[in-house]
Design a protein that fits this description.
Two copies of one chain form a homodimer.
Chain A lengths: L12 E2 L2 H8 L6 E4 L9 H11 L5 E5 L9 H7 L2 E6 L4 H8 L7 E3 L4 H7 L7 E6 L1 E2 L5 E2 L13 H7 L2 E6 L19 E4 L6 H4 L10 H15 L10 E3 L3 H17 L3 E8 L1 H8 L3 E9 L2 H9 L3 E3 L2 H5 L13 E4 L3 E3 L4 E2 L15 H7 L2 E5 L3 E2 L2 E2 L1 E2 L14 E4 L2 E4 L4 H9 L4 E2 L1 H12 L7 E10 L5 E8 L1
Parallel strand pairs in A: 1-10, 2-3, 2-6, 3-4, 4-5, 5-25, 6-9, 9-10, 11-15, 12-13, 13-14, 15-18, 16-21, 18-22, 23-24
Antiparallel strand pairs in A: 7-8, 16-17, 19-20, 22-23, 25-26
Helix pairs in contact in A: 2-3, 8-9
């Protein structure tokens, strides 16, 4: 009775991941995409990769906004040749260790949170099939990350696959009646829906790193960073703010809250990955809204579900430099961390000081590039190794976009910002040259031995505009 | 200090519509797109078209989800040659009258609410520049239709231009601080923002047609329609429902509410254009949610702003047949109206019985095509002219997708649904052949004179899949 092409479309449910892979026509050499909001608790990336291997599919380009510790099993598919390419913004130490041994022929593509979608929207990367983990979905593929027992909050990185992949598969462990009420990605983008027993381990979603530090060195650094904000000219009504989850970075929120209450300052928005500490600033009435691309803990997950002023935004809205604008274009203050920072303010967030590949840029290069004031917070020395070095092992973020380095023993301002340096000095802050911090650090530790690298390139590090910043070599 | 390509992007505000037109590079022959949620109160379509004319731009294809009575002034730009093409889902009677005189060389393209986005997503229509009316926006182009003095509710048809146009201009009379909190289209899609004094007349947004009828004939029809629903097998928990704004169609909500309360039935979703009567069903707890592409009155506008169960959806999510699915695929019952319906159940919603072009399909063909049960409600005779005719003046919706015609004197079931006819007859409803209704109508009015058309095609009527259904000729 109805027009033929429509008849029978009453559900997109298929029986299994394998059936979805088959229906999507996944073939050797394709690019398969994931989002990483389930963090260390993710089951979907592992299950799909194992299924691809079991089906004899080879030469897959694994495109995921993150490949964290929970994805360690994909090492098997890299070794077997199922996965021969990686495109991501951050990797867990286990995968990094294997990559550094040279188990993959092609170098891994390491991008920033903005560069990752930028490479797709700009046409450099073509996604064939995207798998979207959903803590809730309906049979037509409307999905979200806020309802269900494995709720993970914002699904900000899921929009990219939804919009740009040839085929889209929603994978959920919580099938709800049609139509799902809170809808992140809607059915118009989705081809198939798979119901699984569990999309992830809720305990692994909450990253262990999101705890406020009690380390007095970290607290000192955070206090100094707050002083830098206070005297930067940006500490005023309407200020926007982003911070990372590293010890001193996160601790800045504590002092920011005190200062805002004290001086009756009300900010506009908090941006980026969101933890309980950001939610506290919102609920305290100190900020108007949160723009959230990933939620780091249960309080953030509840908040984005229940508070209309806590908004989910796409990765492109967050940080894509190839859009007409992104939220970072409007960011005032960004607090970042560093494994190493060198005399040219270049920052390394990819290699441990002994040369092991771990982590990645995340939003580091994006925030540094965009924020009116980008502050690196770092202790001078970490585990008897200097953090301030002559030359970073990996140039993850170019020094020309870093404004200030705050350590426990002094504050170095990029020579390109003389007016800021003058303001901070006038306010009585312990401003110094970065060379002084370097000499102090090396004085404490001695000049460390540098790791020895071989010839094989195991990863390429790209800036947010997808220009090559550096290459990472296998350890000898 | 920051990387060059990012520097200075702190606002997309430009001084005027003319400046936005200039910056977008609008040239002769381009396709310029609008959404019609300001309905009869729209100022933006008129202002932009007048500006294009003043700038000497010609041969524009005017692509708008609607061109209602408030757009009457664009007749001037059609006559002057600024506008030489129209692509829409419905037009006001004044524009229709002029088109019927043959003032435009090319026929107007008349599509359905689903066919309109389908022609774009399928690549048949390329939008060069989209102007998005926004009752609130910020300086980076985040916009919505729910805040501000000219709030119009859902901006469901704005997504299309946002996603597919080469350039996107947001036009608002209510500039809010960045970041706008409730965000329909976000900044990543927007190139320029223009602040104007007023985007529209709030009084014109609320269409005069959205009033519950007191006409006893209409109420009788609505009661019969409710009886058809009740005995269709679809009147059960989880039922989904859509109705139009015509007299008998809207009145069905009154009887639906009574029946659902009486039998403790709870529906799933209400779809489509939304009025206070749909909101009442939601707030009475009789439906789980509303999926809204356009809001017809102030109560609907307040509801979509304040009630998280009243969801804004895109035109594609509503009705685009070229997406993996749309909400209509899940619709149970759709109530529609008709200017004429013929012995083959074909429906005319484009031409008055005297041959004047007015209105258009809107979602008519989409709902008829998709709903498990599509019911046309219509009086047998309207203004001494039969509504049931031998052959419609325009085939707006093909009869094979219409299930039932309900009139005040009898219910005709499409011969393709014999089981439904049997069920309704068994329930004691006044079921008859459509030929009987035709004979009764003509017996009351006599066989009317048909209007006389000339040779010139003034409009082409497309089904939702953008196949040609009919052509409309100029009146002689």
């Amino acid at each position: 009775m109805k027009i033929a092409h429509k008849s029978g479309m009453s559900s997109k449910l298929v029986s299994s991941l394998r059936e979805a892979i088959r229906l999507c026509g996944i073939k050797d050499g394709m690019t398969i995409s994931f989002h990483h909001h389930l963090r260390d608790g993710d089951y979907i990336i592992n299950h799909v990769c194992a299924e691809l291997e079991a089906m004899g599919i080879r030469d897959i380009n694994l495109h995921s906004s993150g490949l964290l510790q929970g994805c360690t099993p994909v090492i098997n598919q890299i070794k077997s040749g199922t996965i021969t390419g990686i495109d991501t913004t951050g990797i867990g130490a286990n995968i990094g260790k294997e990559l550094a041994k040279g188990i993959m022929k092609k170098p891994a593509m390491m991008r920033t949170h903005g560069g990752f979608p930028a490479a797709v929207t700009h046409g450099d990367v073509k996604i064939d099939v995207a798998f979207l983990a959903a803590s809730s979905a309906d049979c037509m593929g409307n999905m979200n990350g806020v309802d269900g027992s494995a709720a993970f909050g914002s699904a900000g990185y899921a929009f990219l696959g939804a919009q740009y992949a040839g085929k889209v598969v929603v994978v959920t462990d919580n099938l709800m009646d049609y139509p799902l009420k809170a809808c992140t990605v809607d059915e118009t983008f989705v081809d198939y829906v798979v119901k699984v027993d569990a999309i992830g381990d809720p305990a692994g979603i909450e990253s262990g790193t999101v705890r406020l530090t009690k380390d007095p060195v970290h607290l000192r650094i955070a206090q100094y960073a707050m002083s830098v904000i206070r005297h930067s000219g940006l500490f005023q009504n309407g200020m926007s703010f982003q911070t990372g989850t590293g010890g001193p970075s996160l601790a800045v929120t504590k002092y920011l809250k005190e200062a805002m209450l004290q001086e009756s300052i009300k900010g506009s928005f908090i941006l980026g990955g969101v933890s309980a500490y950001s939610v506290d600033l919102l609920e305290s009435g100190l900020f108007e809204t949160i723009l959230d691309t990933q939620s780091f803990d249960q309080r953030a997950i509840r908040s984005i579900r229940d508070n209309p002023n806590h908004q989910e935004i796409s990765a492109s809205r967050y940080a894509n430099p190839f859009m007409p604008s992104c939220a970072l274009d409007s960011l005032d203050v960004g607090i970042l961390s560093a494994i190493e920072i060198d005399l040219n303010f270049n920052v390394n967030v990819h290699l441990s000081s002994d040369g092991h590949l771990m982590g990645g840029s995340g939003g580091h290069g994006d925030v540094a590039d965009s924020a009116k004031l980008s502050i690196i917070t770092a202790p001078l020395v970490r585990a008897r190794t200097p953090v301030v070095v002559d030359k970073v092992l990996c140039k993850s973020t170019p020094g020309e976009v870093v404004d200030v380095l705050v350590t426990e023993l002094g504050i170095a301002v990029n020579p390109g910002r003389p007016e800021l340096r003058a303001d901070l000095a006038a306010a009585g802050l312990p401003v110094c040259d970065i060379e002084e911090l370097y000499r102090t650090a090396v004085g404490l530790t001695g000049v460390p031995c540098k790791p020895v690298f071989g010839d094989k390139v195991v990863a390429q590090v790209y800036h947010r505009t997808n220009t090559l910043l550096d290459e990472i070599f296998a350890l000898v």
